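Hi support team,

I've been running sequence recovery on a batch of backbones for a student project. Most finish fine, but this one hangs at about 90% for roughly twenty minutes before it completes. I'm not sure whether the input is malformed or the queue is just slow. I've pasted the structure tokens below so you can try to reproduce it. Let me know if you need the job ID as well.

Thanks,
M.K.
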């Protein structure tokens, strides 16, 4: 669920962008957003688990039972990057729905803005320092 719901912030179109990102991750990974019966707690929340796999360069873990996806990891990486961009905590960093769809269609380059890249850099530095 988008963070705006918990912070009592204004609800805008970017909430739908967040939900789109979650649904895209559910499709990519063939699983629900929350699976409390997972053996390891780290993979219980899909968005956090995918983010960890992205940082660790282990996107193969997301699609390990899908041969077609495993054979097209470039497309998987592109879809995951778009989904993670859509699920950023800060709504102002999320793309518009139009931009997200255009990136998935290949109509525009799937390169997130500097704010997203900076967020990933912060995550990487936290991961390597902990």
């Amino acid at each position: 669920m988008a963070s705006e719901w918990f912070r009592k912030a204004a609800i805008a179109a970017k909430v739908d962008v967040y939900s789109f990102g979650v649904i895209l991750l559910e499709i990519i990974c063939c699983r629900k957003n929350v699976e409390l019966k997972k053996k390891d707690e780290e993979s219980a929340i899909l968005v956090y688990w995918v983010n960890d796999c992205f940082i660790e360069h282990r996107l193969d873990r997301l699609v390990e039972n899908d041969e077609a996806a495993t054979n097209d990891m470039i497309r998987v990486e592109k879809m995951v990057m778009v989904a993670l961009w859509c699920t950023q905590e800060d709504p102002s960093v999320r793309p518009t729905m139009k931009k997200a769809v255009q990136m998935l269609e290949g109509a525009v380059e799937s390169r997130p803005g500097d704010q997203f890249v900076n967020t990933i850099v912060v995550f990487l530095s936290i991961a390597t320092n902990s």
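--
Follow-up from support: It reproduced on our side and the slowdown came from queue contention, not your input. The longest helix spans residues 14-29. No action needed from you.
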